[in-house]
Amino acid sequence: MSAKDSIYASEQQVKDFTFDAKVVEVFPDMIERSVPGYATIVSTLGKLAGKYAQDNSNLYDLGCSLGAVTLSMRRNLNQAGCEIIAIDNSEAMVERCRLHLEGFRSTVPVSVELGDILDAKLENASVVAMNFTLQFIEPEKRHALLSRIYNALKPGGVLLLSEKLRGENQVVDDLLIDLHHDFKRANGYSELEISQKRTAIENVMRTDTLGTHLTRLNEIGFSQTQVWYQCFNFCSMVAIK
């Protein structure tokens, strides 16, 4: 069991959110109480990886955090000669991810790398997962990163992309934010925690609208893009090359 997330429970000078050791300690609790349907998303990403993985190819988990998606993909893989490459730029996350993965036996090779996904070598890929990762990349660098992913994918390969969305207009955005805050209240977060977390993350996580995501994926060349999950302002989609 992870520790309970109480990082923003006391009044403080709020700094920009980072995936540091303090966050690593409470991350599973934070995610479960903050992202509606997170367990469903993770388990389904594993099933999609199992469906689209190709023999003798690489599967990438970009922004792997503690390795939940890597584990889910590994559990669902039956194809021959596959390797999973998990990458994160948080040293604390990578260390814990390696320990986490060692706790589960598997014949599928996994390498967990500390690095910036903007510089990562991507090749011979049949599946690339980015589970709530793109939203932390500078907006002006997203198109180039997704293009590199597209170019690294084999024909028939997939990008599995989960993101927090911004509403298409202010009215819709406010509605989605209100629903999400209600979800967090129902999971025991106080008004102070909700407010301080929002302040901490607003400079770090810049969300796109669903329209922006779909247009960009289409422009890059993905032949099919489908939203398979959405709850409030959280969404997961599959894009097929």
From TrEMBL:
A Pfam family it matches: Methyltransf_25
Name of the protein in question: Carboxy-S-adenosyl-L-methionine synthase
InterPro entries reported for this sequence: CmoA, Methyltransf_25, SAM-dependent_MTases_sf
Top EC class, one word: transferase
Naturally occurring in which organism (per UniProt): Pseudoalteromonas qingdaonensis
EC number of this enzyme: 2.1.3.-
Task of the protein: Catalyzes the conversion of S-adenosyl-L-methionine (SAM) to carboxy-S-adenosyl-L-methionine (Cx-SAM).
Catalysis: reaction(s): prephenate + S-adenosyl-L-methionine = carboxy-S-adenosyl-L-methionine + 3-phenylpyruvate + H2O
